[in-house]
Amino acid sequence: MESRCENCIIRQFNSLRAMSKEELKKVSDTKTTKKIKKGEPLFEEGDKLNGVYCVREGVSKLSKLSANGKDQIVKLATKGEVIGQRSVIAEECTNLSAIAVNDMEVCFIPKESIVHTLQKNPNFTLEVLRHMAHDLKEADDVIVNISQKTVKQRIAEAFLYLKNNFGEDDEGFLALTLSREDISNVVGTATESAIRIISEFKKKGLIHTSGKRIAIKDERKLNDMVEGF
């Protein structure tokens, strides 16, 4: 029952909450649930999407390939988020790739269900616009951060973001484990630079590491670094 859209609490986190019960029932009848393994793509840059993905479990990294062949991660999409809305509504090929950071469960909603509801339900249209406007704001913040903050500040900010948004495990490590390459792709630097700065943070007692896992030891100093103190 829970996999039915009208009974799913996850929709409260996204634009589907503006759909009527009847519209949600129609979406439920057409959607499919998929399991995506860690490292597998939901879609790749340049794909033509026939629908959108609603994240039920797990995390996806949305990234764009630059001219030098390096990925820039622009967003981490988590439980409750809808991926692919912009390209479906604009009828354009995807501008980003979506790769599973860990094992995921997603609901694939065909394009027809979304477009039909956009045409009939102004509340849903407004909700979709709000979410797309929020994504634009986040993209603006990424641009400003990369141009105005040092790599050290951006890495410190990334660790704080991971703690605040995904929490910590029982041992105090960040619950979402990103590879060193992913961390470098989030902040827009070379992997070698990210590794060097993480090592420096560890020596200064700001963080503790165990393999890929990272634990924050001095949150206040990391915050001060982000603020430029």
Brief digest:
With 229 residues, the chain is of the alpha+beta class. The protein has helices at 21-30, 85-90, 111-120, 122-148, 151-166, 180-187, 191-203, 219-227; strands spanning 32-36, 41-43, 51-57, 60-65, 71-77, 82-83, 97-100, 104-110, 207-210, 213-216. The N and C termini lie far apart (52 Å).
Protein architecture, described:
The protein has helices at 21-30, 85-90, 111-120, 122-148, 151-166, 180-187, 191-203, 219-227, and strands spanning 32-36, 41-43, 51-57, 60-65, 71-77, 82-83, 97-100, 104-110, 207-210, 213-216. The protein is α+β, with helices and mostly antiparallel strands and 229 residues long. The protein has a four-stranded antiparallel sheet with strand order 1-8-3-6. Strands 2-7-4-5 form a four-stranded antiparallel sheet. Helix 5 (151-166) crosses helix 8 (219-227). The radius of gyration is 19 Å and the shape is elongated. The model has no long low-confidence stretch (mean pLDDT 90).
